[in-house]
Amino acid sequence: MKVQMQAVCTGIKTSKGEFEGRPFDSTTFQLAVDLGQTSSGESIGQVTRPFKLGTSAEFEKWRQYKDSWPQGGVLCDCDFDITAGAGNDSKLVLLGIKPAGKKAA
């Protein structure tokens, strides 16, 4: 099921290279998400969680923020796919992200 929601992006990392003869190329967005309730107790607040999206080309869309990234992060419009995870859990897959209020690049 596809959903749109806003999240604060606290950082972006790109990785490109080769490891043991295998190429890799990805971008990871750190998004603030609610801790939520677990079977082992309650929680308060948010944590950041990594979401991979695309290749290093995705990082280039954000390069203009490199020297001016706000301390609290950037509010973003995100497109997610919610899929079934292990047990009764659901899994969020990032499909698209852009600064809130801007058109996708």
In summary, what is this structure?
This protein has about 100 residues and is mainly β.
Give short descriptive properties of this protein:
globular; five-stranded antiparallel sheet
Q: Any overview of this molecule?
A:
With about 100 residues, the chain is mostly beta strands. About 5% of the residues lie in helices and about 55% in strands. The protein contains 1 helix and 5 strands, in the order E-E-E-H-E-E. It has one helix at about 55-60, and strands spanning about 1-20, 20-35, 45-50, 75-85, 90-100. The protein has a 5-stranded antiparallel β-sheet. Strand 1 and strand 2 form a beta hairpin. The chain is globular, with a radius of gyration of 15 Å.
